[in-house]
Specification:
It is a single chain. This protein folds into two domains: 136 residues, 3-Layer(aba) Sandwich (Rossmann fold), CATH 3.40.50; 248 residues, no CATH class. It has 18 helices and eleven strands. Helix content is 46%, strand content 16%. The protein is of the alpha/beta class. The strands form three sheets. A five-stranded parallel beta sheet has the order 2-3-4-1-5, sandwiched between helices. The radius of gyration is 22 Å and the shape is globular.
Length: 395
Amino acid sequence: MYERFQFATLKSRLAEKRRFIQVIMGPRQVGKSTLMKQVVQSQEIPYVFYTADAVPVTNFSWISDCWSAARVKMKVENLTDLILVIDEIQKINNWSEIVKKEWDSDTFNNIPLKVILLGSSRVMLDKGLADSLQGRFERIILSHWTYAEMRDAFGFTPEQFIYYGAYPGAAELIGDPERWRNYISGSIVDATINKDILVNENIAKPALLRQTFELSSAYSSQELSLTKMMGQMTDAGNTTTITGYLNLLSQAGLVTGLNKYAVDMARKRNSVPKHQVYNNALKNLYCEKSFEEAVQDRKLWGRLFESAIGAHIMSYAYAGEYQVFYWRNGQNCEVDYVLQKKGKLIAIEVKSNDSDWNSGLTEFNKAYKPSLSLVVGNGGMKAEDFLSLNPAALF
């Protein structure tokens, strides 16, 4: 079974004496549970596994019950080491306070119980970690798979990666397009919206939330104003509501709206958003053309190509601690993606084989003097090379 690079990180940390809670976080279906199983099964330390997926959110004692069962197992079996794994921990209300209490109790009583927590709701995990568990945890962030990982694990070509995206669970379904779409729709989109957003947020218009996702995904790599989005929706809403829903969809790792780069923060926030999925499978879920037809349609392929580059950039933005924007000055002067981190800028222009040349990079360089300007695609870095690296390494 394919091992991502985080395998070595988690394995080495569990081999150490008990020091920190290990928190594995990332969007749905990127391999969090698989990584955990690979690591715990590769060593001799016994483990116990619990998941909160079907546990009522108000069952406050559930976490403590899991912890108690692990302690009993250690005592009865006279174990010197044991790993307690809890999946979807953020689903339990007040989870971080309970974890803090149990972890500190073990620390005080010298119980060497090692703990792994997994979760797919980044915002709820971050809030709990910041509120209660400062100094007690280490993060392991799993982003969407790179082209190199999909190539090595499943034999993907660059074209297949651009069209089908980077969900490992869907990789072996690409020969059956209907089955592939059902997996993406049910296991990722429906599960994320229904289990991660609607359960944890007060959503007044669930149908509008779903339409926001569908329209934003279909327009990935393109600019579309919120007013025009409203005109294409059947459910009533306003721009403030749609903006809020886009933020929730972004926090869930589905799709986001990129702001136009500007020095003035107000101009950034008031710009027309450029929509961008975090995984190109989410854009092609609504593509009416088959893989073979899409490859032959150069205009469509250009959009899919740019969306794939943007998805790769966005999927590493949280772990890489950089922000992503786009830039435009007039009709034919644009930069597809602008990355910003600690005062440094990187300008990236995406060129499919039939892209028209524009003066965007030249004008952006004159105006903002980025530390790096990069063309990806025709006349620049090969797409497969860019899609194999972590964009944070460019800073």
